[in-house]
Structure formats: structure tokens, C-alpha cells
Amino acid sequence: MKILVTGGAGYIGSHVVKALLESKKHEIVVIDNLCKGSKKAIDALKTVGEFEFIDMSLEDVLRLEELFKTHKFEAIIHFAAFIEVFESTVKPLKYYLNNTSNAINLITLANKYGVKNFVFSSTAATYGEPDTAQVSETSPQNPINAYGRSKLMTEWVLKDVALANKNFRYAILRYFNVAGASSDGLLGQNYPNATHLIKVATQTISGRRDKMSIFGDDYDTKDGTCIRDYIHIEDLADAHIYALDYIKENDSEIFNVGYGKGYSVKEVIDAAKEVGGDFRVEISDRRDGDPACLIANSDKLRKLTGWSPKRDDIKLIISSALKWEENIKE
Ligand code: UFG
Questions:
Q1: Which residues does the chain have with pLDDT short of 50?
Q2: How many angstroms is it from 81 CA to the middle of ligand 1?
Q3: Which of 83, 228, 236, 284 to mutate to test the pocket of ligand 1 (most atoms within 8 A of CB)?
Q4: For residue 7, which of 79, 124, 258, 291 is within the disulfide window of CB 3.0 to 4.6 Å?
Q5: What is the pLDDT of residue 175?
Q6: What are phi and psi of 295, to 5 degrees?
């Protein structure tokens, strides 16, 4: 297939491009405006296989349309988005413009030019504060921050468009907490000023930070810190390939992507200390927008597509992130 990947220079996007190139089945065009993505990731991917890279923003609709005119895409995998929960609470419009409005630009062109398959990076943040320990795809979606709402709106757009256009199919992937780096050390999280827990912990181990904070230890959880379902980036990348193969032959579908297991912030920090040695941690105030607990029920993805995680091990996730952190030169 000829596949357009938006945000392919980003953390998740680059790992998916790598998996697609390794499968040697597809022709890939990557667009990324490099505002968060990294040119280094593109250069690294060029060592894996051939693909076209275009430095382009989704806001540039005229240029984007030229791309659709010159390429006959059969699928789009759409990553380009902002992802930080806290930032979305202080800069909501930044999120609605990029994650919702720019996504609509892309979906509009996908429809105009007859693209049949659309894989969308959605998020567990669309569930908000779930009532149940594990969330399934049918759990209520009541996002508690602008990030979650910006992604949920795009989900709605995709669903409505697919109802109106029977030739258009989507796979909505709701990611839980993605972490780690590629096992061969080629790719990892390049993002400057990263805020994600495992990234921050590995930066502290490797001396890029002198300490880190636990954002709140008074949540209603087993040890008072927030619980998340951490998934290795390579298992998440594989899920895209399975989901795309699935919608090509079947109908549109929504899939949670996680392991179904929760770790508290304190448990992740303890595991990081086991992997990389002791480091300074302090307790700070809660961070706005954080739900207490998010754990995936990903049975549907396993059952319908045959996806099966290979790296379900928190220490393996942390050690791959640490290896990456120790090798990068910022
Ligand atoms: N945390 C700390 N200290 C830090 C960083 C994070 O205590 O230095 C805590 C957070 O408060 C939260 C947990 O660690 O309780 C996880 O935080 P992350 O920033 O790593 O991730 P989030 O859960 O906020 O969000 C991530 C993605 C979202 C996605 C969500 C799904 O950024 O895109 O996971 O669960 F929606």
C-alpha cells in the first residue's frame, strides 16, 4: 500500500515508520513540520529503508492538497498532534487547532481524494476518570482536559465521516502510556523538555536532571500516586500494523492499546531505581489534568487482530529508555 504517515518524525510515528519499512510491504510518505519531531529520527529511518520525507504542516492545506493530487494514498496513519495533558490545560486552543482542526483538514482531503483507510492516534485521555479499574472501548468517554477533548472530537468526526462515506474506514487506537525505545537503539524519545514519567526518570538517572518530582501522593490509589498502564513503544508500533491490516479487510474499529496492568508512579520510580540505581525524588503538588487511574482492557485488539505484546515488562521498558537516554547527545 501507499501510506501517508503524518508526524512520522515524532516518537510514536518514527517507531511505526520503522516497523512499516521493516515489513517491506509498503511505500511510505512521511510529513512532519519538525516542531516536535526530530530530523535525527528521519535520518535514522533512512538507514532502515527508503521513503519520502516532506517537511510540511497540516495547516498548509494548499500544499497538503498538492500532495494528495500527486500521490494516490491507500492509507493514512495520523500521528501529528500535541500530547501533553498539562500543557493542554493552559493552552487549550493550541490543542484544538492542531489535534482537532488540522485533523479535520486531513480527513477532508482523505475523503476528497478517496483514501480508504485511516488509522488515528487517539488516547486513553478521552476516557477521563473511569469508574472501573480497567477501561474497555465501550466505557464512557468524559475527558477531563483539553487534550482528551481535542482527540475525542476528532474521533467523532471520523465516525460521522465513515457513516456518510461507506468507502472510508478508520481504526481509532486509544493509547495508554507509551514508553521505552527501540531494542536496537536506533530510535527513542528525542523530545526536548519531556514531561513523561519514564523519560523524566531516565533523565534523572543519567544526570540530565538533578532530581524529579512525584506529582501528588494523595490520590485514592494503593500508595496515593497515580496509576497508569505503561506499554513498550515497539508493541504499540506493532498494533498499528495489525489494526491497519484489520480495517483493510473488515470494518472500522476502535481499539485500546495497553497491557491491562497498572503501575503507580512510586512503583515506576522503584523499578527505575532497580534498573539504573538511586536518584533524588521529591513529592510535589498534584499536576492539573491528571486522572488517578487509567488501565486498558485491550482484549478486543488481541482477539480481532491477533496482536500480542512481546515486551510486557516494566523493567525492560525502563532499561530500553535508559539505554537510549545514555546514548543521545542533546
Ligand atoms: N508524573 C510524575 N512526575 C513526573 C512526570 C509524571 O509524578 O515528572 C506522573 C503524572 O503526574 C502522572 C503519571 O506520572 O500521574 C504519568 O504521567 P505522564 O506525563 O508520563 O503521562 P500522562 O498519563 O499524563 O499522559 C500520557 C500521554 C497522553 C495519554 C496518557 C494516557 O502523554 O498522551 O498518557 O494515559 F493520553
A1: none
A2: 16
A3: 228
A4: 79
A5: 96
A6: -130, 135
Candidates 82, 105, 106, 240; CA nearest to 173 is 240
> What does pTM read for this prediction?
0.96
Q: Is 230 a catalytic residue?
A: no
Residue among 11, 147, 230, 242 flagged as catalytic: 147
CA-287 nearest atom, ligand 1: 11
Angle between helices 197-205 and 314-327 (to 10 degrees): 60
Q: The domain containing residue 45 runs over which residues?
A: 2-179+230-257
Instruction: Say what the pLDDT of residue 330 is.
Output: 56
Give the N- to C-terminal CA distance of the chain in Å, as an integer: 36
- What grid cell was written down for 214? 512525584
Residue 151 CA: which ligand 1 atom is closest? 36
Q: Are residues 166 and 264 located together in one domain of the fold?
A: no
Q: State whether 217 and 206 are in the same domain.
A: yes
Please tell me whether residues 249 and 269 are part of one structural domain: no
